[in-house]
Amino acid sequence: MLRVVLAQPRGFCAGVERAIEIVERALKKYGPPIYVRHEIVHNRHVVESLRTRGAVFVDELDEVPPGAMTVFSAHGVARRVEELAAERSLPVIDATCPLVAKVHNEGRRYAAQGREIVLVGHAGHAEVEGTIGQIDGTVHLVQTVDDVGRLTVGDPAKLAYITQTTLSVDDTRGIIAALQARFPAIVGPDVRDICYATQNRQSAVRDLAAQVDMILVVGSRNSSNSNRLREIGEELGKPSYLIDDASALDPAWFAGKTSVGVTAGASAPETLVQGVLEGLRRFGEIDISTLAGVAEDVRFRFPAELADA
């Protein structure tokens, strides 16, 4: 028998739930098609499900027909994108995660103080591009401690840092320490401002790794937080696999294994986790338990135009 331990918490965070429901409510209130700039969240199954119901995903606003209802994704957008939407008189619903919006506000506040900004994050990630585009002034992107050593700034006494929300306190601790060592006057937000969901899911994987032989992370390859969950499992010495769904399960992974941990990235729906459990049952009998973990009760308000939709 294979022992299966589920991480707690796992899967959808409040920002993702809100973003998906914004598209669903918009489809219900305004009717399809609803145009969404970039993937609403980084999960293939979620995107495909919304697409079948009338959501049209576009890379840029020039693909949106005149006057069509437009949604900005949970990752946030650059100010220039907001301006382009206004220039084209597009009706816009902003599904930016409130925690991402908080980072935007912090960055703008620091820039207004005349500080250069150091953004800790992943180059090319939609959230990072949106954050950089929300801040007037100089923004330096750092991804590693080594990047901190190579940083060239105008005035070391006028520096501030902010972080991508899908990185945890653990992910950023070393980089922030390096920034503080090199630039003692640097200021930044309290670590409590970092995304609670990212931290909770990573802590749960650490707990999981202590109890199982291997780890399965349900999530899409373009999901930053899902990839990080898999990396943590590997760092803790457990074979770890990032899978979109049950179809990716490989029987060879389970040779000689008596226990497996299952978790899901913040943009992966619970239905996929349950599908993976069904997939595991095809290999033989399983015994399922769930870790004791943090119970998340965070809820975010909906935009005013959809509050009663």
UniProtKB/TrEMBL annotation:
Record-listed E.C. numbers: 1.17.7.4
UniProt entry keywords in alphabetical sequence: 4Fe-4S, Iron, Iron-sulfur, Isoprene biosynthesis, Metal-binding, Oxidoreductase
Coiled-coil annotated spans: none
Active site: residue positions: 127 (proton donor)
Root EC class: oxidoreductase
Entry binding sites for (2E)-4-hydroxy-3-methylbut-2-enyl diphosphate: 42, 75, 125, 165, 223-225, 267
UniProt-listed Pfam families: LYTB
GO biological process per UniProt: dimethylallyl diphosphate biosynthetic process; isopentenyl diphosphate biosynthetic process, methylerythritol 4-phosphate pathway; terpenoid biosynthetic process
Cofactor(s), by name: [4Fe-4S] cluster
Membership in a protein family: Belongs to the IspH family.
Protein name per its UniProtKB record: 4-hydroxy-3-methylbut-2-enyl diphosphate reductase
